[in-house]
Design brief:
Blueprint (H helix, E strand, L loop, with lengths): L4 E4 L9 H14 L6 H8 L4 H12 L7 H16 L6 H11 L3 E5 L3 H11 L10 E3 L11 H9 L7 E5 L2 H9 L3 E5 L13 E3 L5 H7 L6
Parallel strand pairs: 1-2, 1-4, 2-3, 4-5, 5-6
Helix pairs in contact: 1-2, 1-4, 4-6
Length: about 220
């Protein structure tokens, strides 16, 4: 494999959480008078940290979200995770193969450490990620699309950015990986390919990932 470290986004890449999260986010915002559809939430907030939700609402309306907004939202989402959350189809096989081959990997997510842990337990992926492989936007000053989180993960894992590949499904995440100087494979199972066109490669089925990582070469333009 050309890469020394595989960095996975979490929501939509490891766990199939984006439909659940964005459904509840849209509902929470709408209840507060900020009319938001599921499609709006996907467009505006998918792949971002919670501070982006606060910033966009305040910029658009001049109003701040309640101080307990994050707690209320996460309580609903975590309860839904326990009932509904599944791993992304094919990801367990990818992680098992990387583990067997001794290929370093980690997760770098816009979500909080608690959100990542709750999701991994619900989806049965917690066995793959100890604390040393788990990084959150909570660990850095700026979330995606800033490169800080990916650069932090690479530093903590002892790998140069140019030797890393990021697996992402959001435009903000792809922007962050590119800004970090890393290759990025855009996962198009939920996100239209044209929104991830800055990625090094695109793929739509997680079973395609291992052959792509093994090839490891950039496409010719």
């Amino acid at each position: 494999m050309r890469y020394d470290l595989v960095i996975f986004d979490n929501d939509g890449v490891l766990v199939d959480s984006e439909p659940i999260s964005n459904r509840h986010l849209a509902a929470c915002l709408t209840e507060l008078g900020h009319s938001t559809t599921y499609e709006d939430s996907i467009r505006d907030y998918m792949g971002s940290a919670m501070h982006r939700v606060h910033e966009l609402i305040e910029a658009r309306t001049g109003q701040r979200l309640p101080a307990d907004f994050d707690d209320v939202f996460h309580a609903r989402v975590f309860a839904a995770f326990e009932r509904e959350l599944k791993p992304v189809p094919g990801i367990a096989g990818v992680l098992e193969k990387l583990t067997a081959d001794g290929v370093p990997y980690c997760v770098a997510s816009s979500g909080s450490h608690e959100r990542i842990r709750v999701g991994h337990r619900a989806a049965g992926l917690d066995r793959f990620f100890d604390d040393g492989r788990l990084f959150s936007s909570q660990d850095v000053g700026r979330g995606k699309p800033a490169p800080d989180l990916f650069l932090y993960a690479a530093e903590r894992m002892g790998t140069a950015p140019e030797r890393c590949v990021v697996v992402e499904d959001s435009p903000l995440g792809v922007q962050a990986a590119v800004a970090a100087g890393m290759d990025v494979y855009g996962f198009t199972a939920m996100t239209p390919a044209e929104k991830l066109n800055a990625a090094t490669r695109l793929f739509g089925d997680m079973r395609e990932l291992l052959p792509l990582l093994a090839a490891g070469d950039r496409p010719e333009n």
